[in-house]
Structures are given as C-alpha cells and as structure tokens.
Amino acid sequence: xxxxxxxxxxxxxxxxxxxxxxxxxxxxxxxxxxxxxxxxxxxxxxxxxxxxxxxxxxxxxxxxxxxxxxxxx
Length: 73
Known about the structure:
Elements: E1 35-37, E2 40-42, H1 45-58
Antiparallel strand pairs: 1-2
C-alpha cells in the first residue's frame, strides 16, 4: 500500500505535522502549528529563524503578518 502524502509539513525541513518535536501553539496539536508564514508552516523556532534569514537574504520578506493557515476567513 502506498503511503499517503502529508498535507502539512515544514517548508524548511519537510518534517510532517504530527511527528515528535513539531512545535504547536500552546503545546497542543489541536491549536495548530506555533510557526507559519505566507509560504507555509514551520516545525520549530530553528526552522522559523532559518526561513527568516533565507527570505531576508533573498529580499522576499513579507510586508505584513501571514494569516493563520488553519483559520477560515
């Protein structure tokens, strides 16, 4: 049987949401990821900082906060 593709994974390292050491808002998976940006979710502060530094070097930093990817607008 084929493994199903993970819908939510870190855009920096590829870690799937639900795996150990994935950071959640208030430490609870029901509250969604603790870190995200306009391009997707991030699994940890380390990936968040690495992504920020990469975007800063590219000159592609967002001009406003990204909306929560798990909230309906």
